[in-house]
Amino acid sequence: MRDITVFSGSAHPELAAEVCAHLKVPLSPVRSSRFANDCLEVQLQSNCRERDVFLIQPLVAPVQEHLVELLMMCDAARGASAGRITVVMPHYAYARSDKKDAPRISLGGRLVADLLVAAGAGRVLTMALHSPQVHGFFSVPVDHLHALRELARHFRGRDLSRTTVVSPDLGYAKEAAAFARMLGAQVAAGAKQRFADDRVSISSVIGEVADRDVIVLDDEIAKGSTVLELLDRLRELRPRSIRIACTHGLFAAGALRRLGEQPDVLEVVCTNTVPVPDGDTTEKLTVLSIAPALAEAVRRIHNGESVSALFDQS
Questions:
Q1: Which of 99, 100, 174, 192 is catalytic?
Q2: What is the pLDDT of residues 209-218, one digit of tens each?
Q3: What single-letter DSSP state applies at residue 24?
Q4: Directed axis angle between helix 173-183 and helix 148-155, to 10°?
Q5: CB–CB of 159/138 below 8 Å?
Q6: Longest distance between any two alpha carbons in the chain, whole Å
Q7: Stretches in the chain below the pLDDT threshold 50
Q8: pLDDT, mean over the chain
Q9: Which of 24, 115, 118, 230 has its C-alpha lying 20 to 30 A from 181's C-alpha?
């Protein structure tokens, strides 16, 4: 069997180090430098020849810098005769560019998938894609994990007898329903209409939330405009308590601070698929690690075992 070699880009080296600790393999060094004309150069500083190479890099701000760095890592591994190259991308930012809903716009999700494959990626391991059809943008195998088990494990220590999981929109209602089943809870969803990237309207909440313990669940929180709008609708229905949970805590433009300032929000829970922005924090924040899940998926990919079997575990 090929040896395993793991490299990390500059987006989230802490997560990569944690994954390697669970795998009990070293995190191999990467040198990134910049020419005088602002072009990047990437060198993988460990042997790749005929090895099973895993490149860990979530696409977080600055997204374009980290994307180009990842593409160059793929190209460097391919040029070094890697046996197989797997991109471990806990957050695929361009998954939101998944449809042509206006004339003459680019389909960024598919374009970036094509770029990764062209650069040498032979497989992709990712988590909580924004929409299922993004799978089809890749011409190589995609292993798609979710963090619902980690989130559910966090909430199971509470009294869940009067809990309702609320999805901000109907598009995420299927995942919210799966999460509610894990907790033995009810499910509800907001009726959302989006006007711009940071401007939404939620006219109502479908489901029972009055005098119940609400967990608002979403795949990612960026500026937080959707969650804040949903909180306004929830308050009209007078829930007993409100907590917020997501997989990707991007928390752009001070979103975490704004959510933490909401007096009726008891807790904000996310995972470490992306680093929490510097200077934006609240004592209400809980960050859960998905490194064990990523490490187990990497181990299974390397050993030729089923990754889908991870979903069968509660």
A1: 192
A2: 999 999 999 9
A3: T
A4: 40
A5: no
A6: 61
A7: 313-314
A8: 93
A9: 230
For residue 85, the cross-strand partners are 53
Q: Apex CA 220: angle with CA 218 and CA 221, to 5°?
A: 100
SS3 5: strand
Within its chain, how far is the Cα of 238 from the centroid?
31
Would you tell me the crossing angle of helices 291-303 and 13-23 to the nearest 10 degrees? Answer: 60
Chain position carrying tokens 């909401």: 262
pTM: 0.94
- What totals of helices (H) and strands (E) does the chain contain, helices first? 8, 15
How far apart, in whole angstroms, are the C-alpha atoms of residue 106 and residue 85?
27
d(CA 133, CA 234): 30
Amino acid of residue 173: A
Q: Does residue 284 have an active-site annotation?
A: no
Closest CA to 91 of 272, 254, 256: 272
DSSP 37-52: TS-EEEEE-S--BT-E
Strand ordering across the sheet containing 186-196: 199-206, 186-196, 163-167, 213-221, 241-249, 265-271, 285-288
Find, among 262, 213, 271, the residue nearest to 237 by Cα.
Answer: 213
- How many residues belong to the chain? 314
Reported as a single tens digit per residue, the pLDDT across 55-87 is 999 999 999 999 999 999 999 999 999 999 999
CB 246 within 8 A of CB 223: no
